[in-house]
Amino acid sequence: MHRSRVYAILIDAPEAEAARSTAFWSAALGVPAQPVPSEPQFITLHEALPGLVTAVQVVDDAPRFHLDFETDDVEAETARLLALGATQVARWQECRVLRVPGGHLVCVLPVESPPEFFDAHARTWP
Amino acid sequence: MHRSRVYAILIDAPEAEAARSTAFWSAALGVPAQPVPSEPQFITLHEALPGLVTAVQVVDDAPRFHLDFETDDVEAETARLLALGATQVARWQECRVLRVPGGHLVCVLPVESPPEFFDAHARTWP
To answer: Cβ B29–A17 below 8 Å, yes or no?
Structure first.
């Protein structure tokens, strides 16, 4: 058994557009934009959505949204999603980037939430 | 003054992929997929995310995610987002489709949530 939950919605913005994108979303959602010091490609939109981390991610690619799944077992969660028809398109540190049926991107990453929050909200998979 | 909130995340799926996309997301999130009888282009993923409607929307376009903003004043909310740099790209019934700085799509639509839920969670804009 392992557990997972949707952890975050990422607003992927091309580098040249990232500052404009961040300024827009911060004002549109009425929340402060906070750079993540250790990970300069992320700018968090603090408490923009309930129970879901929201952030701009600077990408060297087209604009898009993607969802992050956090899990206590990256291998098992990746295998679960692959069995449902996803394909792995990249691996970055401990994260796996998957293209899922329909063409959307998701990432699978180790648990980022506080343990008690993850315990309260994660689904358990056989 | 008017109010708005992020109401929904839409998983836009090309028609040819919509059934596969719906099956994937229903299984991946562990929730039932429920067609919306009056609006056949929407398939709701029931209670997939906290406080946010999640649905597959069948589109005649590339796969993408988009966000819906619900508001008690579509004109005022559209004007607010245009002033922040968005451009209107389409109008569909009472909804406005905007491309926002960075290149992402959002829709602005009249309040869909129960009034007391909207009142409790919407932001007020001057």
So the answer is: no
Take residue A12 and report the two structure tokens written for it: 């992927």
Give the angle A26-B118-B69 at the CA atoms, nearest 5°. Answer: 45
Tens digits of residue pLDDT in A20-51: 999 999 999 999 999 988 898 999 999 999 89
Residue pair B80/B108 in contact by the 8 Å Cβ criterion: no
Please compute the mean of the pLDDT values over residues B47-63 and round it to a whole number: 94
User: Pick from A21, A69, A102: which is nearest to B63 by CB?
Assistant: A102
Kindly determine whether residue A20 and residue B101, on different chains, have CB atoms separated by under 8 Å. Answer: yes
Please give the Cα distance from A5 to A86 (Å, whole number): 17
The pTM for the full model equals: 0.94
Alpha carbon distance A49, B73 (integer Å): 21
**What does pLDDT average to over chain B?**
96
Which ipTM score applies to this complex? 0.94
SS3 B28: helix
- A82 CB within 8 Å of a chain B CB: no
